[in-house]
Amino acid sequence: MTTAPAVQKLVDAAGGLDIQPRARRWAHLPLCVLDAVFSINARYTSTIAVCDRYAKHQGLLTYLVDVADLATVAGDAAEQPVDELADLGHRLGPARLATDVLRNRGRTSTRGGVLKADAAVRYAEILAASDVHTLGDVTLLLADLPRLHAVESRLRTVPGNGQHDIRIGYLWMLAGTDEQVKPDRKVLRWLRQTLDHEVDVPNARQLLTDAAAALGCSPWELDNAIWRCGDTEHRS
Predict the structure, then answer these.
(1) Per-residue pLDDT at 234
(2) Least confident of 73-77, 91-95, 211-215
């Protein structure tokens, strides 16, 4: 449960952050899927490398673009649907996709987890089967709550989801919504240091949303500013 004093502490602490609007976005939904899956418990530089390798393998010439230029790819014939990631996974299999294309054999868990490449392909399969093929389809999905809940229920069946849907929420962030946050370890640490107590994921989401409203920025902008604080890595 959030309180006004806690939110005010966050607002005060945010004065030391560099809050900026979203500058760049992935122009293809398969890259959003790969980013969401591979970034969990990993350095973001390695996630960017995975996305770069996939894009080059697929011949995607324009794939990480300025937000102002997104329309030149998204919604155009140049935008790759998520079906292509699913098809590539089917042709190669998870092991070859991980080794030969993505060159990353990371797993969703150190104990019995599946290859992240496998999890990404399963995500792609679920999205494609749910008629969510492109970034524009994600926008339509997010506006249809009953359908959204059904798709999220399917995505939760993919190994590595965790109990708080961080991976799913991050996928929607990457695909375009600025109303989601990704309360990962770094963000939770900032909240703990600011509030002098532990904050669980559900409360972190609410605190960041309330603080963003008070600051007049989007939850994504506050989340991203926290994540960039004191680090040279940048999430998309």
Answers:
(1) 53
(2) 73-77
> What span, in angstroms and rounded, lies between the C-alpha atoms of 141 and 204?
24
Rg (CA), the chain: 18
- Exposure of 180 in the CB half-sphere (CA atoms within 13 A): 17
Which of 129, 105, 102 has the alpha carbon at shortest distance from 31?
A: 102
Render the chain in DSSP notation, one character per residue.
---HHHHHHHHHHGGGS------EEESSHHHHHHHHHHTTTS-HHHHHHHHHHHHHHHT-S--EEEGGGGGGTTTSTTSPPTHHHHHHHHHH-HHHIIIIII----BS-TTTPPBHHHHHHHHHHHHHHTT--SHHHHHHHHT-HHHHHHHHHHHTTSTT--TT-HHHHHHHHHTT-SS-----HHHHHHHHHHHTS---HHHHHHHHHHHHHHHTS-HHHHHHHHHHTT-S----
Q: What is the pTM of this model?
A: 0.86
**Tokens representing residue 76 in the block:** 């155009």
